[in-house]
Each structure stands twice: as structure tokens, then as C-alpha cells.
Amino acid sequence: MPSHAPAAGQRLEADLLLTLTTLIAAAGWIFSKEALAGMPPLTFVGLRFAIAGLVLAMFSLPQLRALDLRSLRDSVLVGALFAAGMVLWILGLSHSSHLGEASFISSMGIVLVPVFARLFFGDRPPASTWFALPLALGGFACLSLEGGFRIELGQWFFLGAATVFALMFNVNSHVVRNVPVRALSVVQMLAVGVLVLPPALLIETWPQQWSGAMLGWLFASALLATTLRFLLQLYGQSLTTPSHAALIMMLEPVWTALAAAWWFAETMSALQLAGCGLIFLALVVSRWVWIRGLFGGRG
């Protein structure tokens, strides 16, 4: 990351790249949901990340060759957590009928990151964390009330995925901080394929026919929403400060809700809007130190 404030042109390029990244991430929800219409969830997510990992590996050979045994072991540990989180996420997606709501529940992992840092690593989170957490829980409660105070199975899966991803982020930060980002990402993606595909073949029915549309959604998910998204995000983040990148990346659930409204004609009730609004407010509060610094000119 740059150690000084980026030039205006560089900052504009970073803004455009990171905004494009969040739009691709939002589109990835659509790609995945469409792919699930013809593929079992575990088979889909295993193939998606196996393909993405193999493609990204072709761009990362020098970094992969430089991994020592300890770095590889630690990367596989993070990859196992990533696989667990993706299994919960894809099961949530397969049981969800509302992508906009689901994307906001998934984003709650951001609020949980400093909480886990305190519980497992003794870090002292910013005071804003303790204001953000009840807002996020209040938002989730509003979403669960939509069905008459009944938390749907998909919502449980997404909440579980957010929890695992928050734990994974902390392990990432404390255990593999010196591992090259691209090599780590390749191991993470391939870990999903290696760990998820074998049980998927045992417990799920392999598709009898592979239509062109189904393959199209699979490859769009793997190559656009995973590999391309990662490369754009990494480059965009290298052009700006962490606080500025975080502010833009926070918009992903908003774009996902808008994309779902356009593609699937989804609508939200007042209670759903309130729940998503509270979760988004929690995201803002949880990153308030960075946001305040950004608008204060300190990045």
C-alpha cells in the first residue's frame, strides 16, 4: 500500500478500479444464483474455486515457488477456513430467495472481525466496534422478523459464513501476514476445490447434462467474479490508502441489492429495508476511524 497520499490521477484510477471490483462482486451473486439452477451447491463452489485457483496460479508462479513449507502450511490452514466459509455461503445462497438481504447479512463479518481479534488474539478493537455490533444484530433481528420472528435456514448459513470469514480474516492477519498475497489467494482458492469437491461427488448428484448456460454461469463466476475481481482489487488497493479502499469496498452489498432488484425483480419490505439499513450503518460505524481519517485528509 502506498505510504503517502496518492496523486489525484492515481486516486481516480483506484476509485474506478475498486468501484468496478464491487460491481463485479455484486454480479458474482447473480452468476452464482443462476448457476445453482442447474448445479448442486457444493459441486458448483468446488469447481468455481478450483478453476479460479488454477487460472490465478498461472499469474503467480514466482510467488508460489518462493513459498517455504511453513508458509504453505499456514496458507493451507487459512484455505481450510475459507473453504468452510464458502460452503456455508453457498448453502445459504441455495436456500435464499432474497439476494439483497443475503448480501447484507454476509457483510456482518466486517463488524465481527475486531470482536474476534479481541477474543482470540488479545487485540484492542476501536470503541466504534461496540457501537457497531448492536446495530448489526438489530439489523439481523429486523430481517428475521420479516417471517414472523423466524430465522430462515439461509439466514443462519449466511450468518455462519460471516462468522467464519471474520475468523479467517484474523488468522490471515496474524498467521500469514508475510505470505505473498497472490500466492496465499491461490492456495485458498485451490483449498476450496480440494476440500469441497470430493465430498460433493459423494453426497450430491452430478449434473446429467451440462448446458451452455450452466457452463457460462460457472465460468463467469470463476473467471470474472473470482479471478478477475481479485486481480483488479489487488491492483486498485495498491494505488490508494487502506481507508479509502475500505470505504469503496463497503458498497458491495448495496450494489448486490440493486443488481438483484434489476435481475430478479426483488423488492424489500419496510422491515427488510430497516434491517439492511442498520447493518450498513454498522459497517460505517465499524470503520469510522478510517472514514474520519479519510475525510480529515489523513487517509
In summary, what is this structure?
The protein has helices at residues 8-35, 41-58, 61-65, 69-95, 99-106, 109-121, 128-145, 153-175, 181-203, 212-238, 242-249, 252-263, 270-286, 288-295. With 299 residues, it is mainly alpha-helical.
Total count of helical runs of at least 4 residues: 14
Distance between termini? 12 Å
- The overall strand count is 0
Range of strand content: under 5%
Radius of gyration: 19 Å
- The chain-level structural class is mainly alpha
Helix content: over 70%
What number of domains? 1
Describe this structure in words.
By secondary structure, this protein is mostly helical. The protein has one domain. It is 79% helix and 0% strand. The protein is built from 14 helices and no strands. Helix 6 (109-121) crosses helix 7 (128-145) and helix 11 (242-249) crosses helix 14 (288-295). It is globular, with a radius of gyration of 19 Å. The model has no long low-confidence stretch (mean pLDDT 87).
